[in-house]
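Service request form, structural biology core

Requester: graduate student, group of Dr. S.
Request type: structure prediction, single chain
Budget code: on file
Notes: please return the result as structure tokens.

Sequence provided:
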Amino acid sequence: MPGRGSVRPEKFTEVESLTRTVLEHRVTAVVGLRGVPAAALQSMRRELRARGHPITVSTNSAIRHALEKASGTRPSLKPLLDQVTDQTAILSAEGNPFALYQEFLKTRSPTPARGGEIAPRDIFVPAGTTNFKPGPIVGELQHAGFPAAIEKGKVVLKKDTTIVKAGQTISREVAGMLTRLDILPLEVGLNLRAVVDGETFYPPDVLSVDLEAKRTEIARASRTALGLAVQLGYLAPETVPLLLERAHRRALGVAIATGYPTKETIEPLFAKAMREAAAVSKLTGH
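Core staff response, request fulfilled:
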């Protein structure tokens, strides 16, 4: 950690406070703020604070100094330094990193493109009828790359089109048309860049799992494993009640098939005898 002289005096207290906060909590995350309007940011921060996940907005310099100092005590924090770029905040709290990532996803919402942004994914425009009235708009759409035409007095897009591919720049012309078509290709919200939980570093691609899908997979695997264990007769606390139930059903079936009378078999044995007697009576005509 650089000495106090390398940090502006007015920032020294802030760096010390950030360092303490980071070291006092198990979970530390670097959060991206790019594109989030001030009012929306304040609302998001209030919501996360209410859930026990306060975000501290500071200069990148202060955040770097705090992480450098804290990493002297907890080396696992050091990879977070690579994430302190652009507009950044820091979060230190307790909890599950995967649940935290899902909370951050909820802060994101669709927003229109203004032009000049990089498309985070392919921007798809479906074929179909638009709300535009026939006129110059058709030429404007075509000039921007949209397959527009007039059919039966209506402006239509004749085929599905990927108007901008992931990683390409969205032109101002295309952005304007997307907005007029009510297509919002971007998202605004807090971006969880990376998390450290204790001694473990989590990049966002590890955290971006569908928790509900994983729960479903685990439940399905559990049912499959339980079924296999019962089939094999494997004894475990979960299988013993099912194995006993299966053994009871089989024993009952054998007793009924051999005509062995017990309290449990007497009723089905009588029912079987009545059915057989009725069948014989029908065959003999009596």
